[in-house]
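Why does residue order matter? Because the sequence determines the fold. Keep that principle in mind as you read this record.
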Amino acid sequence: MRLKINLHTLRTCPKNTSVSDIQSVVLIQMLRMNRVFLLIFFASTFGICSSQDYEAETTKAAQTYDKKQYDSCSFYFEKAFKIKMTSGNDLYNAAVCNTLNLDYKRALGLLSKAIERGANISKLKIDPDLEPLHSSVKWKKLLQQANKIQSDSFRACQYPAEASLLARLWEADQYYRFRLGRAYENNDTATANTIWPLLHKSDSVNLSGFEAIMDKIGWPTTSKVGQRGAATAFLIIDHSSREKMEKYFPLLEAAAKSGQAPMANYATMKDRILVNRGKKQLYGTQKYWDEKQGKFVYFPIDDEKKINELRKKMGLEPLKEFDL
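Structure:
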């Protein structure tokens, strides 16, 4: 390939500059341009690869957590964190693994970083997996840090008092569900059966509290009470009676379709209503406990071939079982 000499280079060279000198200047410019291109290319490629590597390590961490191999879970999270900066949720999950692996010091350090990067502080307060940390002096300091971050987030909302109330409702809503899930994971149906009545009572109290908020500010949207407050509104109604769900669903639907509530919440409640009516669900969000199989299984799905396509539109993760 013949070298094309840039006319601008010729004009700016001294009069006695030779053609070979000019060619050398142009070659250097070309090398510089190629170097920049190569740097951009390699940086871009590295970014893609590092992202894939990160996801691979966090996937291994999740798999080992499910197998109760908490030392391996902690190990894979540490490998992931060396690859790139991480989210509050992944830091939180790593802290859970370290707690269950009895490395309380590391767990508390990870939690401190997690809440600074947006981890759910209400979850921190009620998570049974973190109970071994509660006797630590550092846990009390962590809660002080968490409460300040949470209070600041409430003040940023249009209705701070209601945002705070919704956070407490979230904690009440999830408290028994966390423990119910653990009981089923351990095949402890006896404990699960004792939790159900407590959960139903809690749901009733939570609904009353939620409707009192509704009387003041209407349906709690993202602009009114923040993203977590809006998500809590969904949770309370999703765990209420069929009649209440049917009553409030249009308000959630309107909020979701106007960008004031997560579409994933809309999809979940839509499925719940369909299942309650004896119809097939659309998005694969509803399961039930099958004692014979000893696991949760999906209620019938309307179109299994398109399920992940539909879930993607709703902002839901794909289901590997239906990744056809």
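The longest strand covers residues 287-290.
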